[in-house]
Design brief:
The protein is α+β, with helices and mostly antiparallel strands and 146 residues long. It contains two helices and seven strands, in the order ββββαβββα. A hairpin with a 5-residue loop joins strand 2 and strand 3.
Amino acid sequence: MVAVLAYDDLGRVVLVKDKPSGLWGAPSGIVDPHELPSDAAVREVWEEAGVYVELTEVLGVFAGERFSVVYPNGDQLSGVETVFAARVITGVPRADQEETSDAGFFDPGEIERLACYPHFLEIHQAVSQQPRCSYFKPATWRPPHV
């Protein structure tokens, strides 16, 4: 999985509203077979929000309970999401009306007032820390008897 926090020249971020759930989040999606994560990231922003971006950095790698899914048949998926920062090159956010029902630029302070996916709020909180550095949860695993 990839997600993109794409910023315009005013520091606003592109967010999309998921059509089925009505929740806001960053443009995101699955990396297709043999696709580079960076290509998937640029493609997803274009497909979901109609904005062409240039990736600028890896903000972090996220996983855990909020990034996991249990399907109706009981299968479980533990997701790992690579989150990129990007700058908007061209385009005005617009929903694709398939996956997204709305899209727009938002000031970082506006995000707290939106109905957002919990995993997106975790990403937003982590990357808003100053000084900003690539985020990942520290390892907790240790070999036996150490």
